[in-house]
Design a protein that fits this description.
The protein is an alpha/beta fold. It folds into three domains: 54 residues, no CATH class; 122 residues, Periplasmic binding protein-like II (D-Maltodextrin-Binding Protein, domain 2), CATH 3.40.190.10; 97 residues, D-Maltodextrin-Binding Protein, domain 2 (3-Layer(aba) Sandwich). It is built from nine helices and eleven strands. Helix 3 packs across helix 8. The longest helix is centred in the first third of the chain and has 24 residues. It starts with a helix and ends in a 17-residue tail after the last helix.
Amino acid sequence: MVANKALAQVRALFVHLGAVRSHGQRSLVLPGLAAYSHVMRTLILPLLLLLLAGLSPMAHAESLRIVSDDWAPYLYQENGQAKGIDYEITNEVFKRLGVQVQWQFLPWKRCLAMVEQGLADAVMDIFQVDSRQGYLVYPDEPMSEVEFVLYQARSRPHPVERVEDLAGLTIGTSPGYVYDGTFAESPLFRREPAPSHEANFGKLALGRIDLLVTDRQVGRYVSRRLGLEQAVEELPLVVSRRPQYLGLARKPGREALAQAFSDELRRFKQEPAYAAISARYLGNQDFPFAVEQQERGTR
């Protein structure tokens, strides 16, 4: 678009020069170096600058529509206001890149469908999965690392040290979330999905499930918000760990945008402002920065 405008301006200038000559006005053609300098100043250099600007990955920074589900404390809505660690970090990184963003919160599976169909520009906090490579581009730098752990009711403890110890139990899960390895495939126990993290914790407190699996930070955040900190506890077994990313819809120029986002995110992580955002949501809790993933068509 910028290049087209530049060419149009050059074309208009030549038309103007032709009109000037046709009216018998003084010729603008200058001899030797003077002519060269004049042409460079008036035509070539401005055109080159405009063309180079058009090649910049940030030159046409359209407003990006990012979709995600509620994934507190990483990103969520509270009284209609978007909040969260990754929400604030992403906004800051794109602000530095000169890219405007719009957010929409939807069920996870719908988020995946929208970005795959080109109805959304990006999806936040998603795992890298081979089946998504055809329609998603990922920055090299992850937003954070997910660490899935198990929660149990303190009044109904289960001695679990490995996945095999879950035999015969019912584990609360989240629909669409991706759980790795043995946990996702084991026939030893039953996996029962719930519509939300809050619903899973409610079922655990009422004894309708034996355990639930969720990200460590999400579990602590939700249990604290529901006033269940003294009623439930996390187990030491780590089901899986995976980095989560911003996923950009695969379109022309998105690889360059992904690289620019990755570079700026990496720089931002070294600044006090980055740590301040995490501290504002997590306080002084001494545990790894992690997240659980809904499969959303595989989170």
